[in-house]
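question for whoever is on the cluster today: can someone run the full assembly for these? two chains, 748 residues total. i dont have access anymore since they changed the login thing
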Amino acid sequence: MEQDKSTRREFMLTALLAAGAAAGCHSGESAFPAAAGSEVQPSGKKVKLLSVDGEIVEVDQAFLKPVPHLPPLSNTEERLGIPGKKFVMVIDLSRCKNLRKCQEACNHAHELNPGQNWVKVYPMQDAEHTAPYWEPTTCMHCDEPPCVKVCPVDATFKRQDGIVLIDSDRCIGCRFCMAACPYSTRVFNWSAPEIPAEKAKQPYSCETSMPQKKGTVGKCDFCADMTRKGELPHCVTACPNGTFLFGDMNEDTVTNGSETFRFSDLIRDKAGYRLMEDLGTKPSVYYLPPVDRNFPFQSGEEEDSIQKKS
Amino acid sequence: MENIQSTAEEHTIRDLLPQKFGKWGKRFTVFLVLVCLLGAYAYYRQLRYGLVVTAMRDYASWGIYISNFVFFVAISLVGSLITAVFRLLNVGWSKPLTRIAEVIAVAAIIFAALIIIVDMGRPERFYHLFLYGRVQSPIIWDVIVITTYFFISLLLLYYPLLPDLKILLRFKERSSPGLQKFYRFIGSFWKGTREQVRLSDRAISILCVTIVPVAFSIHTVTSWLFATTYRPGWDSTNFGAYFIAGAFLVGAGSVTIAMYVFRKAYHLEKYITDDHFDKMGKIVVLLALVYLYFNLNEFLTPVFKMKKSEAGYLRDLLTGDFSGVFWFAILTGMILPIIVLLFRKGRRPLPVFIVGIMVVVGAWLKRYLIVTPTLLNPFLPMRNVPESYHRYFPSWEEWAIAFGSLAGCLLVITLLVRIFPIIPIQETLTEQYEAVEK
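^ ran it for u. tokens below:
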């Protein structure tokens, strides 16, 4: 565990430097003379960087070294997942007003075509006299995933970090997983997805779920590529109300980027629950009941009519 | 005495040898080929543009391809019923019907396999099933049992055919040189020696015993494609038996249709008698009653409870969008056939033929009702999808492919009947000898 943390710290540092380098340099290769030889001549151009301690330091551009991209993961590594992690999401229903920024960010990040939504927001009312509320859903990343059970070719699989992913290079498009999923979370590429050519050409990655392919199934992937980088899924960061909280069950923390909670406390204090517990699918997504709400239900209906018009 | 017998034999053989297509035979074949071609064109469009040419979408993610698949698997079960079950029970009268049943079984199981490939989003990855197959998926179970069933059915068609091939080879003038070459290729080793007959009889007995559990498996596993999911309407322990009961019914119905058509087209009144229709009529009544019983089990108890998750689906079926089709299928597929066939007059050839058509049409609609209404009643309401995703009505491409596959199945049956005697000749002759000796 200790080792894990130190590698993560190193990792954050390189990521920071890389970010600084990317911000400071305008043209790609020529900006990195240091890469070619060991002798470094100061170029005189200074670049401002944020140090690990939070101070702003000035560094000569010549001393910046390019950080190579992370080596592309093999299919096997992507199928195994990140050791020691167990990702979990908490959705606080008292904060949702059907803004659907989550959906927008998700669709944008995954280049989803019109009509496809991996994140959906449902107007729910459990009984005639109970209060209506807005319920966003992602893939539940079940611990007993019905979709994985029925897949005939191991195209959809469960990783050790709890994430359920799809290998679109493997999928035969039988859609049994769509029939098996009680949460209606899976979408199908009925036609060839319209994606910018250079993205469509890239080899498929199970972690980015990109590029989506004709005749195969797609769904929310908990942004497995972001979590590998130690970042939050797009829906989490996109929500202005902090509805989505994401984290690691082993660390017992969840965060929406601005607030962080101890997962077990949050679930205990706010009586968290999971959807369709009776089916025994054991979802990795927990819900906090819509009590003491930040918005009335009607404000979400207004959002609906605004989005319909646009 | 011997002379009389051999002329009688000649006569029987000439009656039963495959005949060239008449005017209607040719027209029918051309019609089937045209429907198949239209289906092929629709499938070309589907390969090119993707499954978007169908009306299936994220909620109704399975459609008439899957209902058609279930229908084909169901119909193919008749081979095991008429050939194996009746043989094991020593039912003598069904002998002239065995080949009709086996031909239907083989043709239907071929198209069951084809239509499932048509339904795949990535048919070119079909080999993934063998490369990466995971045995916990009911689809893999289906692949295994359907392949097994296909081969057993093919052998059950082939072994009893061997003595007839010898006869076909003897009557050279009745078939073209090409066909003769084909007969020689598949059957010239058969000399009809005592040892060969013994081996063949033994093989047929073994096949008859093995095909029964395999036949039950193919349709039970097909029902499990649905019953292993959580969805209201599919989440039923009744499903295996319910499917098997329906399958035997539609299979028997299809045999009565084939009996009537072949009898009429090839003038086989002497071999497929009114008595056969009477007996098949009784079998259809029995099977329809059993199927009705399973339907009662499938719907009455959930309707009595009206659980929240199932209420929407049940309302759709009984009083909602699908109620017309539902009650039509129950009425024409079960209740009317039972009423008609209970009367002796109803078991004459023409009424039995009409009832057969009703049973088959009802059965096809029933398969549609098993697939679609459930998918359109998911646990969470349909949301954040285009309005058109909320409904399902097949596109012309789907109809063309579905009817293309049905036509293809009929075409295979028609061609097999053109090539091989539809009534086992040797068995008929043996029976005649036995009758004379008595």
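summary bc i know u wont read the tokens: Confidence is low (pLDDT under 50) at residues 1-6, 15-36 of chain A. The two ends of chain A are 49 Å apart (CA to CA).
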